[in-house]
């Protein structure tokens, strides 16, 4: 019995040992298989210098710049795997082939299958921009072009230049430059311009492989990528004269602008939460008037404000317990548009919210404090203002309405250094024309003793007789106008007296029709926008400084984009 138990235990140990050995061998076998698979996998290299080399072309079939081209397929072979990037934006073909070719990547090859619609005796250029990149790092082969001719001659003439904005003079990127034979000027039609290129980030463009001929050239900042001018929503530039192309032409510079829509439209109409009615038009309205047709009381007491450019209007009415209004907009005393506007479910809160200038809580003895509001102000009741210097109530301040704008009030005081001021507008201190009132508002102020104001005088020379110029003081970004002055040959100076310190730019507009505004152009009538120049530096107004500069306006004597440079 004892011997039998010992033998059973010994056999059990041998069995366990055998199983462990087999499991160990199996585990090692699985590990070896895993290592083999891992070694066989293509791995992205780690460490080392970053790959920055674009793919190189090893072979082009047929060869680039081939003549008498009859092939149906182009094969371009690279030194590494490639892929196409942003093909719709980067690739372009000129002239248009009628139907789009088919692009396929097969490992290191790019295959281009051409349509059957190629013209005879025509030079075609396929531009790839930055759309050919290596597979792993995405390095682009920049500005590669494949060129071929279906005739026995490669067209080789070129046109180059720059595109800017007509109003800001900033260079314009991603603008289409279109070249159209004079015999088929299709910029306004349904047929796409088929000779084109796109400006780079510096606004430069170049059209290559052109044949001799007479053309019209346009720059188009389009929205739907159809290479057709679709109206005033798209910016366009052009040369007044056609181009006779017999040699390479450089410096064919264009300026783009938005034209005036042919058909007037009220783009937006709505009741605002403050009770006003906003109207936005698709163009400027000349001598506008706005009347209410279906509400005599509201029409009699209404207040209408048109924007400085007369392309929008804000309407204020006394009775807002209405469902809708029917308005008529007139231009030069003639009906222009009938507008039906419904109030809908807008929750209106008629209250006046005061606006303070300056809005940084620091006042000075030159501009003092201005109080205005979006809503028309009828009156500010001084008895409902609490003016404190430190903690003491003061009443010897001035409250006066502006002589030029009755919606602005001035609060003037002999502000003093190291004093703290507070002005409290108690509820009802400000009253609007239709009974609106303000809620309680407190404003804390301190005196800015830096006296950061200076004088700046400009004298302008080389003005044309019988011509008005608009001198605009603007910010560095060119998107805010602080002040506009009119000058002419008899009154050629502008003086900024005690003007706030800071950096400013000057824009001058030749106001040919003397309407006080910059007027745009019309591509169909071949008229250009009114000429604009910027003075060639930024001006800094410093505290207690007097500066004087003189500038020539000879650059506004003629439009520089009407003629082709010789």
UniProtKB/TrEMBL annotation:
Domain SbsA Ig-like: from-to ranges: 51-150
Species: Sphingobacterium paramultivorum
Record GO terms (molecular function): carbohydrate binding
UniProt KW Lipoprotein keyword: no
Keyword Signal: yes
Name the record gives this protein: Ig-like domain-containing protein
Family matches, as InterPro entries: Carb-bd-like_fold, Cu-Rt/internalin_Ig-like, Ig-like_fold, SbsA_Ig
Keywords linked to the UniProt accession: Signal
């Amino acid at each position: 019995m004892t011997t039998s138990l010992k033998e059973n235990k010994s056999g059990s140990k041998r069995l366990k040992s055998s199983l462990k050995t087999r499991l160990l061998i199996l585990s090692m076998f699985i590990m070896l298989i895993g290592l083999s698979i891992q070694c066989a996998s293509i791995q992205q290299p780690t460490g080392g210098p970053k790959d920055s080399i674009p793919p190189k072309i090893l072979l082009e079939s047929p060869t680039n710049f081939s003549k008498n081209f009859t092939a149906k397929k182009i094969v371009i072979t690279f030194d590494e795997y490639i892929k196409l990037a942003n093909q719709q934006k980067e690739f372009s073909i000129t002239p248009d082939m009628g139907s789009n070719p088919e692009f396929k990547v097969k490992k290191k090859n790019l295959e281009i299958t051409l349509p059957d619609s190629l013209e005879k005796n025509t030079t075609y250029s396929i531009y790839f921009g930055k759309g050919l990149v290596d597979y792993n790092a995405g390095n682009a082969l920049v500005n590669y072009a494949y060129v071929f001719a279906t005739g026995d001659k490669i067209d080789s003439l070129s046109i180059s230049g720059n595109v800017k904005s007509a109003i800001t003079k900033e260079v314009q990127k991603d603008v289409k430059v279109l070249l159209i034979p004079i015999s088929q000027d299709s910029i306004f039609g349904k047929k796409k311009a088929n000779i084109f290129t796109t400006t780079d980030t510096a606004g430069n463009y170049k059209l290559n492989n052109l044949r001799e001929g007479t053309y019209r050239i346009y720059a188009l900042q389009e929205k739907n990528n159809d290479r057709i001018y679709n109206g005033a929503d798209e910016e366009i530039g052009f040369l007044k004269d056609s181009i006779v192309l017999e040699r390479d032409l450089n410096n064919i510079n264009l300026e783009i602008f938005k034209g005036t829509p042919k058909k007037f439209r009220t783009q937006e109409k709505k009741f605002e939460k403050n009770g006003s009615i906003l109207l936005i038009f698709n163009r400027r309205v000349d001598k506008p008037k706005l009347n209410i047709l279906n509400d005599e009381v509201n029409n009699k007491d209404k207040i209408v404000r048109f924007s400085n450019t007369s392309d929008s209007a804000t309407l204020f009415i006394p009775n807002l317990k209405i469902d809708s209004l029917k308005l008529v907009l007139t231009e030069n005393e003639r009906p222009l548009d009938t507008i039906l506007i419904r109030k809908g479910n807008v929750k209106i809160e008629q209250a006046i919210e005061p606006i303070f200038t300056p809005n940084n809580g620091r006042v000075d003895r030159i501009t003092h404090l201005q109080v205005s509001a979006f809503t028309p102000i009828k009156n500010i009741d001084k008895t409902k203002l609490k003016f404190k210097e430190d903690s003491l109530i003061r009443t010897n301040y001035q409250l006066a309405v502006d002589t030029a704008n009755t919606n602005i009030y001035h609060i003037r005081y002999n502000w003093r250094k190291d004093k703290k001021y507070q002005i409290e507008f108690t509820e009802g201190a400000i009253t609007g024309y239709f009974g609106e009132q303000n809620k309680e508002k407190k404003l804390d102020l301190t005196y800015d003793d830096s006296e950061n104001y200076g004088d700046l005088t400009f004298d302008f020379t080389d003005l044309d007789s019988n011509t008005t110029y608009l001198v605009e003081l603007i910010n560095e970004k060119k998107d805010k106008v602080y002040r506009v002055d009119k000058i002419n040959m008899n009154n050629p100076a502008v003086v900024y007296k005690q003007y706030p310190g800071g950096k400013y730019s000057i824009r001058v507009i030749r106001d040919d029709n003397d309407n006080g505004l910059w007027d745009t152009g019309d591509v169909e009538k071949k008229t250009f926008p009114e000429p604009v120049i910027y003075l060639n530096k930024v001006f800094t107004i410093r505290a207690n400084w007097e500066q004087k500069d003189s500038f020539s306006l000879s650059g506004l004597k003629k439009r520089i984009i009407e003629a082709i440079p010789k």
